[in-house]
UniProtKB/TrEMBL annotation:
GO terms for biological process: methylation. This is Probable tocopherol O-methyltransferase, chloroplastic isoform X2. Residues 186-194 are annotated as: SAM motif II. PANTHER family: MAGNESIUM PROTOPORPHYRIN IX METHYLTRANSFERASE, CHLOROPLASTIC-RELATED, METHYLTRANSFERASE.
Amino acid sequence: MLSLLIPICLSSLFDSDMDAVLRTEHSPFLGMYDVPAEYAPTPAAGRVAEREEEELKKGIAELYDESSEMWERLWGDHMHHGFYERDASVSLSDHRLAQVRMVEEALAFAGITDDPLKKPKRIVDVGCGIGGSSRYLAKKYGAKCEGITLSPVQVKRAQALAIAEGLEDRASFQVADALKQPFPDGQFDLVWSMESGEHMPDKTKFVGELARVAAPGATIIIVTWCHRDLSPSEESLQPNELNLLNKICNAYYLPAWCSASDYVKIAQSLSLEDIKTADWSENVAPFWPAVIRSALTWQGFTSLLRCGWKTIKGALAMPLMIEGYNKKLIKFAIIACRKPM
Ligand code: SAH
């Protein structure tokens, strides 16, 4: 029965118009900063964009409300790719270690030090999931970490895990929008976004908010899915590439993608310093095949069925991520920079 259902679901998923809202190709630069007057949206267009953004946020919240428990059961509390040696073969237990290694590699790349005088003391985890990074960083640095997510279910679980680990005074969580963060300016000496940037409909506003809440001299780390950089002769991706990304957007509640160099340009436009970026696509290559294998176990399969349609749709789209990486269209990128003193 299910073998029949899956192809039917797949075709309806990829031909459907139901999430057309998520396919809008608005520029990552269309934000509240530096928008020339002639490109500023009319009030009516502004309202449509607002409604689309609200629908996107609702979809993201529901997707993570629905799927987080299953993810935690199969994969633990880090809801992000693992970092692997290139061309390494890995056993299943290594994947969780690889996810922790991702956190360590990101910190090392950004030059975050263990020096007691310089280590971060106040951290914000933007798009915190169930708080895997928040608790790890709070413990590692003895820091205070505040996590925000759109998913109320994730907040509840993140709080429960913090209490279970005796970290309730150092790791706190709330439902809040990364594009309108509930924090005053200049609060945090480490601003951390692990695989949430791809959900942000306005990349300029996103990086602008990360910079706003960063204290002078603070480090900002963004680890995120990007599309490949365009060549100098290209104005956009090829139609077949856009088509593949649109299918992935439909499944994972993602707006239009941007490249790592787009992030660099945004960081430069905000006068951020020491901007560095790297392509870690090859270091994450074993991850999606492993996620697919875990979904194909009996436990994975029954958990998926219990979760609901949004999660099943996400699972069915996993091979598309592999296709995107194989075609060198999808890039797994890190961007690190510093707010000027
Ligand atoms: N960083 C976490 C979770 C990654 S999953 C980890 O590595 O484990 C993506 C997360 O981004 C989810 O928690 C989702 O709710 C959050 N997110 C997406 N869009 C957001 C937004 N606009 N504001 C706040 N959080 C957002």
